[in-house]
Every structure is written in structure tokens, then in C-alpha cells.
Amino acid sequence: MAVWCEEKANQMLEIILKGLFIGFLSSAPMGPVGMLCVQRTLNDGRRHGLVTGLGAAIGDMVIAFFAVVAALGMGFSTDFIQQHQSPLQVVGSIAVIVFGAFVFRKNPSRNLKKLDESVAVPFLKLFISSLLLTISNIATLLLYVALFARFSIIDDSGLFVNELMAVLFIGVGAICWWLLVTYFVDKLRSRFNPRGLKVFNRIVGTILMLVGVVGVITAI
User: Fold this and answer.
1) What phi and psi, each to the nearest 5 degrees, are found at residue 152?
2) CA separation (Å) from 28 to 37, 52, 187?
3) What's the pTM?
4) How confident is the model over 122-143, as pLDDT tens digits?
């Protein structure tokens, strides 16, 4: 009994850490939502940026949940994963590499535009706008399916606990990311250089590609 409890605790801890890592890393690329969060932090203050980030984090949780449903619908059952673990990890890793290459080449500073500071936008509107913008990005759904395959998160045991925990901590990881972004943008607003976002995206893209390469190597 003690051994079983220890195994379950270790499994749950692994799911939590994977969820945090996926949430943190998938939020890092400076796409439309990231730029919106930066803009609102610069123009209206950190609270506006945080509300925007919170909307994005909830959107990530919604997409992650649908990614789980999609993965199960595609036949990512426990038996299927065990029988095809290496091919699935290779496919998922390659998808992560492709996404990382796209992030590496993307220049987010081109999308940085001045917002109208004279108009006070309600927090609810900020939240909903970033939530909808996040959910509308179908590429994020595909990324989560790939990451779930890469990290072997899907489990069709019927309890659905692992998947729900992963979705929850993906949201927590995303929130942690937006806390960091809004903090540093707010503190460094006087020295903020949009061109630095391109360098940052290259760093994130490189990390994603490395995660994918490691996944391919370990699978082979």
C-alpha cells in the first residue's frame, strides 16, 4: 500500500512539473497575446497587463482541455501510447521543433503599436479580449497535442485525474509567466526596447527546438 501511494505521489508530482513547464514554455513566445500584454503594461500599468495575462492563462487552460479531448479522440489511449510511445514522441517532438523554428524567425516588435491611453478600458473587457484572442489561435491547440505526445501525459484509465491536473498546472505555469512579464516590463519601462523582443523570441524558439531535438533523440 505504501509503495502504491509513493508511486501515485511521484506520478502526480511528475504531471504537475510537466504541466508547469508546458504552461510556462507555451506562453513564452511573444505572439499577439504577449504583445497585447506588453502594450497594456507599458501604457496603462501592470494591473492591466496582469488581467490580460490572466485571460490568456484561462484561454490556455481551455485549449489544453480541448487538446486532451482531441488527443483521446485521435486514439491516444494508454495501450496505444505504450505500443507506439517512440513514434508518438518523435512526431510530437518534430512538431515542437517546427513551432520553435517559427517562433525563432518571428519578429514580434512589428506588432507593437501604440494604444489609446486616453480611453479607460474595463478590466472585464481586457480579460475577455485576451481570452478570446488566445482561444482563437488554432496553432496553440496543435502545439498542446504535440507537447502531450512529447511528454506522455495522456492516460485513458478513466479517472481523468492526470489530464485535469496537467490542464490546471498549465494554467498555473502560464500565470507565473505573465507575472514575470508584467513585472519586468513595468520595472524596465524606461529602458524598454521592442527590438529586444526579437532576441527573446529567438531564445524561446531555440529552447523549444532543443526540447524537440532531445525528445527525438531519447525516442530513438
Assistant:
1) 55, 55
2) 12, 14, 18
3) 0.72
4) 888 889 888 888 888 777 777 7
